[in-house]
Amino acid sequence: MVIELVVGAFWAMLPAYVPNNAAVLAGGGAPIDGGRTWGSSRVLGDGKTWRGTLVGTLVGFALAFVCNAAAGSVEAALGIGLPRFSVLGAFGLAFGAMLGDIGASFLKRRTGRERGAAFPGLDQLDFVVGALALAALLDFAWFRGTFTLPVLAVVLVLTPILHVGTNIAAYYLGLKNEPW
Ligand code: CTP
Ligand code: MG
């Protein structure tokens, strides 16, 4: 059933979707790169902070267990099956999403893009690749059972759409400086 596939894929990615948004709300304080530069640019920039990364990871990780607790009732209400999160899978999704985003900033600085500059494609998928890779690395059995090929296909299509939408919303709400 298509609805079950799409809702299940969205559900499975929630611990990876939320960290970046939590980091926007929690960001500030000391940058991870400590202000250091590599060549003529910052290593990561002021947009990647310890606080944003820590809070983002914790919020995403905690959300996985809220989802696990709510899954039974949501399944009954919607009449569909939903995935459950393992501890390592949840941590991999949340922290991996943050690492993917940090890796993208590293690439942006190396390619001469200032903080906040857009890098179409990378901006929408960096955290997905990071989240899926770290989850697979930390708990491959769980990952393989949860992210089947149809689920992965939906994730790759759905995520850029959701990412563009939420960032435009965050921009108009005054939470982000740029709409990407
Ligand atoms: N943020 C943070 N720590 C992170 C990720 C994000 O503190 N690991 C916060 C920062 O305040 C950042 C905001 O969330 O400015 C928006 O995140 P993002 O768009 O990823 O950063 P940018 O400021 O656009 O910087 P970059 O060009 O490096 O992506
Ligand atoms: Mg940005």
> Roughly what percent helix?
over 70%
| Mean pLDDT figure | 96
Total count of helical runs of at least 4 residues: 6
Q: In angstroms, what is the radius of gyration?
A: 17 Å
In the predicted model, the low-confidence regions spanning at least 5 consecutive residues are none
Strand content: under 5%
Largest sheet: 2 strands, antiparallel
Side by side, the strands of the main sheet go 1-2
From the spread of the alpha carbons, the general shape counts as elongated
**Distance separating the two termini:** 32 Å
The H/E string reads HEEHHHHH
What structural category do the secondary elements indicate?
A: mainly alpha
> Ligands bound here?
cytidine-5'-triphosphate, magnesium ion
* Strand tally: 2
Could you name the key traits of this structure?
180 residues, elongated, 70% helix, binds magnesium ion, binds cytidine-5'-triphosphate
Describe this structure as you would to a colleague:
- By secondary structure, this protein is mainly α.
- It has helices spanning 2-26, 50-78, 87-110, 122-138, 140-146, 149-172, and strands at residues 37-38, 41-42.
- The protein has a two-stranded antiparallel sheet with strand order 1-2.
- α1 (2-26) crosses α6 (149-172).
- The relative contact order is 0.16.
- The mean pLDDT is 96.
- The structure holds cytidine-5'-triphosphate (CTP) and magnesium ion.
- Cytidine-5'-triphosphate binds next to α1, α2 and α3.
